[in-house]
Amino acid sequence: xxxxxxxxxxxxxxxxxxxxxxxxxxxxxxxxxxxxxxxxxxxxxxxxxxxxxxxxxxxxxxxxxx
Length: 66
Description:
By secondary structure, the chain is mainly α. Helices cover 73% and strands 0% of the residues.
């Protein structure tokens, strides 16, 4: 597990573009190994609308100094 922590720490020091490229590379290597990736998550319109309302409330609170 120590190796994982070292890799994770090194990855955090990468630029956002380098982390994106690393993520895509890791996903491609999993596909090459034949491992199935989890299916995309599906959300209902009501769930998404609820998150948008919550985000708007949080933004209003932030702007209001709450």
